[in-house]
TrEMBL record, chains A, B:
Pfam family, one: Pyridoxal_deC
rRNA-binding in keyword set: no
Gene3D superfamilies (alphabetical): 3.90.1150.170, Type I PLP-dependent aspartate aminotransferase-like (Major domain)
Subunit field text: Homodimer.
Record-given protein name: Glutamate decarboxylase like 1
Keywords from the named record: Decarboxylase, Lyase, Pyridoxal phosphate
Keyword Lyase carried by entry: yes
Alphabetical list of CDD domains matching this protein: DOPA_deC_like
GO molecular function, one term: pyridoxal phosphate binding
Naturally occurring in which organism (per UniProt): Anas platyrhynchos platyrhynchos
Amino acid sequence: MEVGICKQDMLQKKKNAVLVDGVILNGPIMDSKAGEKFVEEACKIIMEEVIQKANDVTEKVCEWRAPETLKKILDLEMRDTGESHQKLLQLCQDVIQYSVKTSHPRFFNQLYAGIDYYSLVARFITEALNPSVYTYEVSPVFLLVEETVIKKMIEFIGWEEGDGIFNPGGSVSNMYAMNLARYKFCPEIKEKGLSSLPRLVLFTSEECHYSMKKAASFLGIGTENVYFIKTDERGKMIPEELEKQVQRARKEGSAPFLVCATAGTTVLGAFDPLDEIADICEKHGLWLHVDASWGGSALISRKHCRLLHGIHRADSVAWNPHKMLLAGIQCCALLVKDNSGLLKKCYSAKAAYLFQQDKFYDVSYDTGDKSIQCSRRPDAFKFWLMWKALGTTGLEERVNRALALARYLVEEIKKREGFQLLLEPEYANVCFWYIPPSLRKMEDGPEFWQKLHEVAPIIKERMMKKGSMMLGYQPHRGKVNFFRQVVISPQKDSG
Amino acid sequence: MEVGICKQDMLQKKKNAVLVDGVILNGPIMDSKAGEKFVEEACKIIMEEVIQKANDVTEKVCEWRAPETLKKILDLEMRDTGESHQKLLQLCQDVIQYSVKTSHPRFFNQLYAGIDYYSLVARFITEALNPSVYTYEVSPVFLLVEETVIKKMIEFIGWEEGDGIFNPGGSVSNMYAMNLARYKFCPEIKEKGLSSLPRLVLFTSEECHYSMKKAASFLGIGTENVYFIKTDERGKMIPEELEKQVQRARKEGSAPFLVCATAGTTVLGAFDPLDEIADICEKHGLWLHVDASWGGSALISRKHCRLLHGIHRADSVAWNPHKMLLAGIQCCALLVKDNSGLLKKCYSAKAAYLFQQDKFYDVSYDTGDKSIQCSRRPDAFKFWLMWKALGTTGLEERVNRALALARYLVEEIKKREGFQLLLEPEYANVCFWYIPPSLRKMEDGPEFWQKLHEVAPIIKERMMKKGSMMLGYQPHRGKVNFFRQVVISPQKDSG
């Protein structure tokens, strides 16, 4: 190691430079003025190319390129030497140009859409401040904000008290709940693991989100130990079937511990009958988790909250404000009714380097040990700023409008030739087939359905290549490919 | 349900409004011009209050307020009606003022610091575009970028091929690896779970990150089945001890499946001897995972990559470019040597609504089923843009500089009265005690150490209340509270 004063001829500008191991230490290595200018110029591009165009229906929703073509267009390779600011700004332009505009009024491909300016500002602040939410000392504002938002969400669920945490996705929230229910069922699992235990079994509907299977596999429970409960023709869990399956599991000698109900299924937007399911859970002493990732936002609407009637009886709820409420990817809360510190007991590892107990403030504000993550983003903050800006009334309007738009769309589909509704929607998911003229006179039968199955992918391809619209489709439980449209963007103009 | 043309007197501005369920559907509900203006004004605040002040050592690193005081200052409550833009901008100011400035030159509290302008721009683009990375159709650019970045990181590890995924945190990457190793060991676990299996056992050092315990508990393995291997005085795993523990586990009839080595421990910055550990893993047929969340960035430096000698023999590696390389919270890759699709086989749930097989493009680009998440952020993108901007050489300089600064700091500590080094650092973690004048003449003994233990929290409190510096401290393996300083900010001026 060499530490010393560098020779005059090595110093271009700075006297008394400190040289260690070939590195001149004093003086920043970054040109911060140039960096700031670069940020300013890039922000201008973002404002013009993304934010101001978000409302413009004449823009393309996507500029489709096949993977091999796009690879050639984008200069993806990372090299030994860096690029000029000019080149980098062009790269930013290209990234924007060939990315899908999820805030475009014709983006209906997922269960989120649109742009919320307040959430966006909160996200810019987050990125600039670059916080990590685990201890009060490094994230004082964001931890208090998270606490406030969780408390408010709990009010809407209808619990008197509770706890919660924001997670990177509803899938992760569902995993948390599954693990929490398991811990409550048998706290020794945390230390002992599952190997000597009876087979744990959980119940969820056939229409549940695929994260249930992922969670069961990840947590070591196994997908075969997820008992899928039959649903009715609208996609709602049949309580009598649940009762039967719980009894079957008991007879098999396995250990039922959890029912996951869904409030707003992914494809059909169905709501499981929570009150009746809660009765069964109570009777059998099972944890009730409600995956309201998609449907939870209806709780904000006095008109539509009845869809989740009985949710106050749940032990835990997953709810993603990044979907219908437009809080931005990702904003996902897991709410827990327990207020005895179960979340912390279940998840804590008590790392001494992070959660010191001899701090000068009340360390109960250090909530990082409720999480499976170490560094964690302050996702509650964007929801909070948006809520402050719009008020509960503004959020409520957003929900009411999405559901009114769905009803409008349903009426239009009924009126128009060649469109056929899959079923009368309960929520914002409008599922329908488009039957092209060539099939309209065809007899109902396997051939018709086979041909219809091929229609949605072709239309989707055409729309994407044109850049006119993005719309999800899927086959589902014996039904051939149909479109699923959800209209949640506040930019949407149906007139 | 009522769908109809609304009466003239209800229409202030718009004729032929469509009214459904009390909601006027045509016309956006947002004033987008006002929204854009709000974003512009907020961006100005962010630029002035966060970005331009990042380099200013005369600013406070934090404006400390106790939780109860801060609650009173911030108007946290969310109300029925929204706030004015003026009020909201003031709120943004307050959020910034009372948040810790993690990019401040005197922020040494965690293993990340500083600001990188290119990564920041990429993050602003991400937030504006609001993508979710699961299918090529919705995230074409970001998926190609992720593929490119993973390939490049794999090159630095020294594998000829491989696979990978970006996760929300190194803890999550470690969990992925643990589950992947388990799946490789016994693929039926995915369906069957752990209940009928022998006790699975994994090995990691006493100095490993706490996420190992969290992962073992979450995955149903149990923390008791994590066998902690003794380390030497520098914090490095002792290979002979590992060998002994593997044999002990075999004798007990349990099933060893995984060794987690650490490259850059959290507190001491120690690197486990990967080559010797790899020999043992090979001999016993165990998966070798290297948690290089902190130390992985040294791979970029030709001078320091020897710290990870042998890493090419690992089966998986966790590496967080958001730490020493400044890519922004969070940017965490799990890299996997297997190239036979193990990641997808282990994690897939094949949701038909998302991963349709009849798409018009090559669906092997739809990599979302490699993940436990559904919606996922494009964290590779910020690393990519930064890499494009700085080149490999620029990233290398960042690492070399951090390590040179550590050596400089060590020399200074040795020179200055009242400072005592805990040990000669191997990496960037400089661990030391500050011995106040009152203790300098005291005899070495329990009373001295007890008093010294109380020093760091008091100094930290004083520095935070003054806003002059943030520095981590902890007790560690019998050693009383000491400071851990890591200097990685490119803004840092040591002169």
